[in-house]
Specification:
Elements (H helix, E strand, L loop, with lengths): L1 E8 L10 E2 L26 E2 L4 E3 L1 E4 L9 H6 L2 H11 E3 L2 E2 L6 E11 L2 E10 L8 E3 L7
Parallel strand pairs: 1-10
Antiparallel strand pairs: 1-9, 2-5, 3-8, 4-7, 5-6, 8-9
Length: 143
């Protein structure tokens, strides 16, 4: 077995607030596989990761107001309007599993480094051709 360690750090979003590790990606990252994430946006222990799955779910706010959901949307719970509302105000910066990271999650922890957070994911791979690696996701460049 080969152990792979991946560290992902959140950054400050364009509003100056920390990005959030979360699994609540439904309206912003609908096309990404994320059902295996816990409430903090990390993969559950024992998850078998395949290329293209979300390794860490991260959301941030665009430089617009995240005011209360308009009453018309809230009363009807119109899924399309709700999706458009969130897509206009939030962005996703999820870290995806690459072929080199495929394996089984053995550890997933979050640590705080001031206002932002870091997630460390340890993965065991049975592919002996992989070397033990540590990968770090680069901070977001403001758009």
């Amino acid at each position: 077995m080969v152990r792979i360690t991946v560290t992902v750090s959140s950054d400050l979003d364009p509003t100056g607030e920390p990005e959030e590790f979360t699994n609540d990606l439904d309206y912003v990252a609908e096309n990404l596989r994320h059902e295996h994430l816990d409430e903090y946006g990390l993969p559950r222990i024992g998850t078998v990761l395949k290329s293209g799955m979300v390794l860490v779910g991260i959301l941030g706010r665009k430089n617009v107001s995240l005011r209360e959901i308009p009453e018309a949307i809230r009363l009807t719970m119109d899924e399309v309007a709700l999706g458009e509302y969130y897509q206009a105000r939030l962005y996703e910066r999820c870290k995806l599993v690459t072929p080199e990271m495929e394996g089984t999650v053995v550890k997933a922890v979050i640590s705080s480094n001031g206002r932002c957070q870091s997630a460390t994911i340890e993965i065991e791979s049975s592919n002996e051709s992989k070397e033990t690696t540590t990968a770090t996701m680069a901070p977001l460049q403001l758009r």
